[in-house]
Specification:
The chain is α/β, with parallel strands linked by helices and 347 residues long. The protein is built from eleven helices and ten strands. Helix 8 links the parallel strand 4 and strand 5. The protein is globular. The protein starts with 10 loop residues before the first helix and ends in an 8-residue tail after the last strand.
């Protein structure tokens, strides 16, 4: 009779152990730095390259992220990204005067190599990865695009259909406290106001297609009191107001920032007593600056596809299935969550 074998560990317990190990590993490797992955060596090198064995090219998101600019300054951001393990850096920002800071960022990288903060070996690693990718794509044999064929590759009906399906699935109804939505198609007077000339026009066209008479009053990124007063006056004889916001949370009154105008606009529109639907077309955080609004939709984009999805949600043609990819904290209280990660309402 052989020696008794230990009982097998149930699969769910094995999965729980792996999950616990993964979480512990992330805590040990990454730590609570508060930095995005773009600047995190524990994430990009420790997890992505060393643990997951990713050997491809790593590309940053836009380097004009205001949070890291405020924290580190424009000259330090590219150096930190390269030290983290990034290969290609995108969208260097402009300064308060509107001048691009790329020359300063390039000089900062060169100086970091000269001082030894960055090594030539580290730069070469990225260069070789980029060259290898170009070789695999055949760009050394045929480096130029045929302009006559761009329309066969970019913006094809197939691509646009994929984009539409993506925005249909991700449009998020964050708040519907007054039960305004879904709207019924039919005759009504609707004011579409807020940020974006083409954004408000496209959304107004979509609303008009459902039977409404749409008035468009675009107020820009930083509306002043005259623009706010005009929008409020236009709202008074309307049945519905749709207000578009873009980074309304960026309320600093400094060059390069939006200021409080968008938040002030929404508050003034809500104060009219008219039904107001706010559509945030970039970051979903805007509602923290006007929590009194009863109806709030997040699209994460202002493409035509995203705006069509928003209109379909407004009129109940699409049951919103999007969920917040982030938590929305209360204004000036990052520890207080207004809407948690994964939140989203349906009909």
């Amino acid at each position: 009779m052989g020696e008794a074998r230990p009982a097998p560990v149930p699969r769910r317990d094995q999965a729980a152990r792996r999950l616990h190990h993964d979480r512990a590993h992330r805590r040990a490797v990454a730590g609570p730095s508060g930095d995005p992955a773009t600047l995190s060596r524990p994430i990009l090198t420790g997890i992505l390259r060393d643990r997951l064995h990713y050997r491809g090219v790593v590309v940053t998101d836009a380097l004009d992220m205001q949070g890291v600019r405020d924290k580190y300054g424009d000259e330090n951001i590219p150096v930190l990204a390269l030290k983290a393990g990034v290969d290609v850096l995108l969208k260097p920002p402009a300064d308060a005067q509107g001048d691009g800071v790329f020359p300063r960022q390039l000089a900062a990288v060169v100086n970091a190599v000269r001082s030894g903060e960055l090594t030539e070996k580290r730069i070469d690693e990225s260069v070789y990865r980029i060259l290898e990718l170009k070789q695999r794509r055949g760009l050394f044999r045929d480096p130029y695009a045929d302009e006559s064929k761009i329309g066969q590759v970019v913006g094809t009906p197939e691509h646009l259909a994929v984009a539409q399906r993506a925005t249909d699935r991700t449009t998020t109804l964050v708040k519907n406290g007054a039960g305004i939505l879904p709207l019924r198609p039919g005759a009504r007077k609707a004011l579409v106001t807020g940020w974006g000339v083409s954004t408000t026009a496209t959304l107004g066209t979509e609303i008009a297609r459902r039977g409404a008479t749409a008035t468009i009053r675009q107020t820009g990124l930083s509306p002043g009191q005259p623009q706010i007063d005009e929008a409020v006056a236009a709202a008074r004889d309307q049945d519905l107001v749709v207000a578009v916001t873009n980074r309304a949370w960026d309320v600093k009154q400094e060059p390069g920032h939006n200021g409080p105008g968008q938040a002030d606009l929404v508050k003034a529109l809500v104060a009219t007593g008219k039904p107001v639907v706010v559509v945030a077309v970039r970051d979903p955080y805007d509602i923290a600056w006007f929590p009194e609004t009863t109806t709030y939709l997040a699209t994460y984009s202002y493409t035509a596809e995203a705006l069509r999805s928003a209109a379909k949600v407004l009129f109940g043609e699409l049951d919103p299935s999007g969920r917040l990819p982030v938590a929305i904290p209360a204004r000036d209280q990052p520890g207080t969550v207004l809407y948690p990660f994964g939140h989203g309402l349906g009909y």
